[in-house]
Amino acid sequence: MINFPDRLDLAQTPTPLQFLPRLSGELGTRIWVKRDDMTGCAISGNKVRKLEFVLAKALAEGADTLITCGGLQSNHCRATAILGAQLGLKVHLILRGEPPAELDGNLLLDSLAGAEISCYPVSKYRRLPALFEQWAAHYRSLGHRPYLIPTGASDGIGAWGYIHATSELAGQMQEKAVSPRALICASGSGGTQAGLTLGCALNQLSCPVIGFAVCDDAAYFQNKVREDMRDWQQRYQMPIDVESLSLHVNDEYIGPGYARATPEMFATIRRLAALEGLILDPVYSGKAFHGMLQEIKKGTFQGAGDLVFIHTGGLFGLFAQRDQLDLNLPNQTNN
Ligand SMILES: *Cc1c(COP(=O)(O)O)cnc(C)c1O
Question: What spacing in Å lies between the alpha carbon of 98 and ligand 1's midpoint?
């Protein structure tokens, strides 16, 4: 039995482990999707699983204000803004980029949930630790108790979210007799991959976890995921040698950069939506899914077998990139 720290019950779990029949038939590989895009409605996606543990700690420390950061269309910031409102906490978001002309996608929901938002140009956002400290000092001076959440809630505390998810998944795989060649996820801040990797070790699952990088290169993620696992080990003194765990990162499908996908990736998003009713996003899940399909075609997973794709959410980010989807407007119908 894994001894989990305190956790708030915020996510709708267990999420389904769903088989994709038509895609699997075409590929000759059985594709299963762990539907973590269904962890909630407005709070959907992977971040709520990490925040279940992070916010439990924040409340235990008596915090009344959450400060966190991310891109303008950050799913993590949206989940934090809404969960903060649910828990009666003030939320301040430090966002990277020029303020946009209109509210869309995640940013619309951040505002709707009443979060305070500060946008910084990339040059200023580079001094992120100083920005966190500045806003924390501001709230302390007003008599508040701020709690700082790192990018993507990825640290040793947030890692528990995907350890917990792996235990859930292990039971579902046993029930459905799925023994995957690999668990596949998108990696953005590394915490999901860190949690899945630790979760596999703790549950004695031997399949590799492959993170498809969406921004930085493989060396960056090797380092970041290892750091999160070390932080977890140091905080909780768990009987796992985190240095011995292998990490697998594929950085061949980043495309033009963070939050920017290729036309082929958008084509994959359109195709999966129509073929299986599975909605992917252009920042994370669509890139990773596209990468997985290319690797299957290359023969990386050697023929038939099961693959489990962790659908980490991101639906709202799709709306902010509607132009790139290349969809036709409906025609006027008169008959
Ligand atoms: C944040 C995010 C990821 C990446 O997870 P990390 O733990 O940050 O690596 C993947 N998919 C979606 C939709 C996300 O919002």
Answer: 22
CB atoms within 10 A of CB 89: 20
Q: What tokens were used for 303?
A: 């023929």
What distance in Å separates the CA atoms of residue 288 and residue 238, rounded to the nearest whole number? 30
Check pocket membership of 71 for ligand 1, CB cut-off 6 A: no
Please tell me what DSSP assigns to residue 243: G
Q: What is the pLDDT of residues 201-242, one digit of tens each?
A: 999 999 999 999 999 999 999 999 999 999 999 999 998 999
- Judge if the beta carbon of residue 192 lies within 6 A of ligand 1: yes
Instruction: Tell me how far apart the alpha carbons of residues 284 and 211 are, in angstroms, rounded to a whole number.
Output: 11
Cis ω before 99 (30° cut-off from 0): no
What average pLDDT does the chain have?
Answer: 97
Q: Is the pLDDT of residue 302 over 90?
A: no
Indicate if ligand 1 lies below 6 Å from the C-beta of 195: no
Flag whether pLDDT at 304 surpasses 80: no
CB atoms within 10 A of CB 287: 29
Instruction: Say how far apart CA 232 and CA 156 lie, in whole Å.
Output: 4
Give the predicted TM-score (pTM) of the model: 0.98
DSSP per-residue letters across 103-152: --HHHHHHHHTT-EEEEE-HHHHTTHHHHHHHHHHHHHHTT--EEE--GG
Please work out whether the CB of residue 46 comes within 6 Å of at least one atom of ligand 1.
yes
Angle between helices 191-202 and 159-175 (to 10 degrees): 50
The half-sphere exposure of 221 on its side-chain side, counting CA atoms within 13 A, is: 28
- Per 3-state DSSP, what percentage of the chain is helix, strand, and coil (rounded to 5)? 45, 15, 40
Q: For ligand 1, atom 8, which residue shows the shortest CA distance?
A: 189
> Which amino acids are annotated catalytic?
74
Lookup result for tokens 């001894």:
3
207 closest CA partner among 215, 218, 199, 216: 199
